[in-house]
Structure formats: structure tokens, C-alpha cells
User: Which sequence fits this backbone?
């Protein structure tokens, strides 16, 4: 507010259009400056520097000049078996969480859009995981998955589905699916709320017309709801995919990437390279490679969806 | 036939979403003896509260909660101070800079954190801000800012331009009309944005992990993770108790935002 105070105010009338526009431009600049400066210093600048680092051999402890190494980091990344292993895990994680979370959220949103009892209670409950700190979500699920004191083993045993305790997060083949379930649980609220908002904006007349034409429930869902929801679906699944492929904290708390790297998502891999082993340049390379992959995948996907929609 | 199936499905969802939270609560109220029993129970037979006390004595919960609070409050105040004028400009005047800001909001969602956190860490190190709360605050503000700008400019847009124009016709200056007319209508949006910034900062883990290496400056999420014990000693009761305590502010603030979001803008506009 102090910033707006020092602008001299003059009535807009009586000024030429161009003059007014340049004055408005200056005003905009002044108003935006306090936001632009930190964004440039702490966000855009570091981002550009990060891209530059990807082409250097920067190390954490070394303050001396780092030398430019061209594309050799990228070459190393391409032949790094550990990276590819974590890339594969990252893809499995991001695709399964995004798809399953979308399907689960769509089902829940459809239910919450129906005139059911307890609907408002369920709508509030849906939001609770959203309000929980990610670290708490990770710790909470560790309690659920705990081999001896956890509730999951005892629930499954009581249901007769299991005859011994499983150490879910320490089992080579089960850890990743177990972590994926937590990912779905964590992301469901947001996706559900977005889809629910989308559902509520579908014009009622379309359903009435569908009803008149004698379309079945499934038919109405397929021919009215889905096409109407398409822009919302494209946006939220794209964002979910990007968030999931960049996920770090949740899995760090759950498994720290273990057992034996079975849940080492790419960002955990990069974090270890940078802040455990100190290879800043190499970790930045992974970041750049990821931007390229994500933009390539999503750019194409969004572009095609938009073209179809038009 | 359809209704019962729908209720069944809804029940399934509710159980899936609620059972981990119920289990967290149950674990927080159990003694370690009861926790060691072979068949875990949903409802503690002898509920105790000592886990909460133990949580405080085992880790520096109070200190780290205060540090989290300081960072979160500073983050939300700074975010509003910086974002409010900018969002006003963004909403009211399309220009190259405001388009840049919108683009930045979108782009900032896509970039992997590692690409920014390494150089940012180097910047903070050269400014002597690593291992300091101001350093973490700067990082938090930077990462909350794009979305805060986005939220705020939406709220500004929702205030009808005509209101300002009418005030100008009545002879009120820009400042006067901003303070007397726009600001009150904007208040709910500002509160919602400030709370969003607060919760984001309060919950944030990764940047704290990178920026704060020294245990003496650890924020709450970092301290919580310590309950899992690098020493291999995991005390489940205090861990659950501390987790519950750390969730309370988020839940409270979220409840407030909920009410604000529903009634806020509409009520404000009608009153104005």
C-alpha cells in the first residue's frame, strides 16, 4: 500500500491515449516491481543459472571456478544405469498415481454430485488430506504399513487375505505399489474438488435433453459429462502428472528411496546426487533433462487435446 | 438398486480416506505396551495422553513449532505486501509484465525443484543465509508468490471496475477509492491468500531440508521426521502424537479458508 501512495494522481481525462497508456505502463511497473525483483533474483535468475550449471562440473564444496564441460553431463546421464532405474520407477509412479487417482477422483466426484445423504459430510472429509502436512501424511502411512504395530497387516489377516506380517515399505516388490497408494490418497482431494467443480458447471439442460431422448445413465455420462469435462480433465491430469513426476517429500519420508532404490524417484536421485554427494552440475543436468521430457510429453498431449477440442 | 450401490461406493471412499487418520489418532492414544500386542486394536483399551508429553520431551517440538510459526507468518505477510500491488496491476492493466507474471505462474508449476534449489542454495550461501530462518523465508516467499499472485488477481478481477469508476466520478481519488472501496471488498481474498501462504510455509519440507542443515534451526516438519529416528529407535506413540499436533494449525486455517471461500466474496460484494 505504501507503494501506491507516492503515485501522483491526475484525472485520466484530458490526456492523450498514448500518454495515458505510457503512464499506465509506468504505474504497472511500479506496482509490480516489489514482486518482480524477488522473482528475478530468487526464481528466474537461479533457474537460468541452474540450466547453466547443467553444462558445468560444479561441486558443492568447491567455491573455485567451475569449468564448462559441454554436453558431457548429459552423456553421463544417458549411460547412468542408476538414473535409468530411477527414471523407470518415476514413470511407473507418475503414470499409475495420475491415472488411478483420476479414476478414483472421478468416481468420488460423480458420487458427491449426486443427491445423496451425508454428501456434505463426505465433501468436508474429502478435504482433510489436503490440509495435512505432507510429512505427516508420510509418517501416518508408515504407521499404517508398520510390520508389527500397523493396522494394514491385521486388517488383511482378519479378512483372511494374509497369513503373515508384511513389511510393506521394506519389501522389494511391494514397496513401490504401497507408496503409489499413498500418492493416490494424497492427491485425491484436489483432483476430486476440481472435477466436482467441473461437474457442477455442466449445464443441466443437456441432461434434461438427454433424458428426453431416452439416453441411459451410461450414455449420458459418455456423451454429455465426459465431453463437457474434457478441458478440466486435460488440465488436472496434466498438472497431476507434472506434480507426481516431480514428487519428493512424501516418498522421502516414507522410504527415503529404499528398499534398494526400489522407490527412488528421479527427484530423490537428483537430491542425493546434489546434497549427499555434492554433484551440483550433474543434478542440474537431470533437472534440465526432466524439463525437456516433461515439456515434450505434455506439450504434445495438450496441443493434441486442444486441437481435438476445437 | 442404484442408490444402495452408490451409498456403498461412498462408504468405500470414506473408509479409504478416513482410516489412516483414525489409525493415527488411535496410535497416539496407545501405550507402548498396548502397541506391542500381537493384534492391533482400533480403539485403545487404555487410552493415555502421555505420548503427547513424551513427544515434547523427546524432540524440540516447541522450539521448532515457534520457528515454523515465525517463518510462516513472515512468509504470509511478505507475500501479501509484495503480491497485492502486483496483482492489482495484473488484473487491471494488461501489459507485457503482467503477461510475463501469468506465464511465470504456469511455468513455475512445471520445473523440477532441483533445477532451482541448487543455484538458490548457492545464492543463499553467498549471502550467508544458509541455516537461517530469513533464508528459508525468502525461499518460501519465492515459491508461494506465483500462486498468491494468481489467487489475488482473481479476487481483484471479481471487484467490479465500475465501483472504482463510480468513486472517481464522485470525486474520490485513486488512493481513496482503493482504500475505501476496493480494499474492503478484497479483504476476504487477502485473508484467504495469506492463509494459503501460511499453510504452504508451515507444511513445507523439502526446501527446509536443503536450507536448514543445523538441527538448532529445524522447522517442525524436519523435527517430525526425526521421530522416525536415524538411530533406529522408532517410538510410534510420540510420533503419532506429534504428527497430530502438527496438523492442527493446518486444519484450523483450512476450516477458516473454507468458510471464507464460500461466503467471503459474495457477502463482501453485497455489503459494498
Assistant:
Amino acid at each position: 500500500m505504501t507503494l501506491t501512495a507516492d503515485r501522483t494522481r491526475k484525472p485520466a481525462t484530458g490526456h492523450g491515449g498514448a500518454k495515458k497508456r505510457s503512464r499506465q505502463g509506468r504505474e504497472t511497473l511500479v506496482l509490480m516491481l516489489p514482486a518482480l525483483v524477488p522473482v528475478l533474483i530468487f526464481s528466474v535468475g537461479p533457474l537460468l543459472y541452474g540450466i547453466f550449471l547443467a553444462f558445468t562440473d560444479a561441486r558443492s564444496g568447491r567455491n573455485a571456478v567451475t569449468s564448462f564441460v559441454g554436453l558431457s553431463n548429459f552423456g553421463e546421464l544417458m549411460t547412468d544405469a542408476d538414473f535409468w532405474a530411477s527414471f523407470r520407477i518415476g514413470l511407473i509412479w507418475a503414470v499409475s498415481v495420475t491415472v488411478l487417482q483420476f479414476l478414483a477422483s472421478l468416481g468420488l466426484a460423480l458420487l458427491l454430485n449426486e443427491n445423496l445423504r451425508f454428501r456434505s459430510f463426505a465433501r468436508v472429509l474429502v478435504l482433510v488430506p489436503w490440509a495435512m502436512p505432507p510429512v505427516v501424511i508420510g509418517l501416518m502411512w508408515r504407521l499404517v504399513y508398520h510390520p508389527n504395530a500397523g493396522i494394514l497387516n491385521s486388517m488383511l489377516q482378519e479378512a483372511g487375505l494374509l497369513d503373515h506380517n508384511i513389511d510393506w515399505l521394506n519389501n522389494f516388490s511391494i514397496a513401490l505399489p504401497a507408496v503409489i497408494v499413498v500418492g493416490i490418497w494424497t492427491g485425491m482431494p484436489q483432483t476430486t474438488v476440481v472435477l466436482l467443480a467441473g461437474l457442477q458447471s455442466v449445464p443441466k439442460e443437456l441432461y434434461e435433453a438427454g433424458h428426453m431422448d431416452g439416453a441411459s445413465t451410461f450414455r449420458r455420462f459418455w456423451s454429455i459429462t465426459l465431453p463437457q469435462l474434457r478441458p478440466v480433465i486435460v488440465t488436472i491430469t496434466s498438472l497431476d502428472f507434472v506434480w507426481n513426476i516431480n514428487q519428493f517429500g512424501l516418498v522421502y519420508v516414507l522410504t527415503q528411496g529404499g528398499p534398494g532404490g526400489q522407490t527412488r524417484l528421479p527427484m530423490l536421485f537428483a537430491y542425493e546426487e546434489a546434497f549427499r554427494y555434492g554433484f551440483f552440475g550433474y543434478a542440474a543436468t537431470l533437472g534440465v533433462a526432466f524439463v525437456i521430457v516433461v515439456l515434450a510429453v505434455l506439450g504434445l498431449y495438450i496441443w493434441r487435446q486442444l486441437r481435438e477440442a476445437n | 438398486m442404484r442408490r444402495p450401490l452408490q451409498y456403498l461406493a461412498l462408504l468405500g471412499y470414506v473408509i479409504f480416506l478416513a482410516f489412516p487418520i483414525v489409525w493415527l489418532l488411535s496410535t497416539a492414544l496407545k501405550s507402548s505396551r498396548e502397541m506391542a500386542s500381537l493384534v492391533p486394536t482400533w480403539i485403545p483399551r487404555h487410552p493415555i495422553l502421555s505420548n503427547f508429553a513424551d513427544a515434547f520431551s523427546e524432540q524440540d517440538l516447541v522450539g521448532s513449532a515457534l520457528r515454523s510459526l515465525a517463518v510462516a507468518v513472515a512468509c504470509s505477510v511478505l507475500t501479501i505486501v509484495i503480491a497485492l500491488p502486483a496483482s492489482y496491476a495484473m488484473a487491471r492493466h494488461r501489459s507485457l509484465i503482467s503477461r510475463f507474471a501469468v506465464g511465470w505462474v504456469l511455468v513455475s508449476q512445471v520445473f523440477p525443484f532441483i533445477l532451482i534449489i541448487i543455484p538458490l542454495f548457492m545464492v543463499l550461501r553467498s549471502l550467508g543465509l544458509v541455516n537461517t530462518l530469513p533464508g528459508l523465508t525468502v525461499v518460501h516467499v519465492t515459491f508461494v508468490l506465483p500462486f498468491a499472485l494468481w489467487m489475488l488477481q482473481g479476487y481483484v478481477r471479481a471487484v467490479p471496475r465500475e465501483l472504482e469508476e463510480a468513486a472517481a466520478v464522485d470525486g474520490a481519488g485513486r488512493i481513496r477509492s482503493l482504500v475505501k472501496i476496493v480494499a474492503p471488498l478484497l479483504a476476504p481474498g487477502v485473508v484467504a491468500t495469506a492463509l494459503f501462504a501460511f499453510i504452504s510455509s508451515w507444511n513445507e519440507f523439502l526446501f527446509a531440508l536443503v536450507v536448514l542443515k543445523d538441527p538448532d534451526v529445524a522447522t517442525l516438519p524436519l523435527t517430525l521426521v526425526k521421530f522416525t529416528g536415524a538411530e533406529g529407535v522408532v517410538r510410534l506413540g510420540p510420533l503419532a502424537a506429534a504428527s497430530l499436533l502438527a496438523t492442527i494449525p493446518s486444519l484450523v486455517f483450512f476450516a477458516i479458508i473454507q468458510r471464507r471461500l464460500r461466503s467471503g466474496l459474495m457477502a463482501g460484494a453485497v455489503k459494498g
Observations:
- The longest helix of chain B spans residues 236-271.
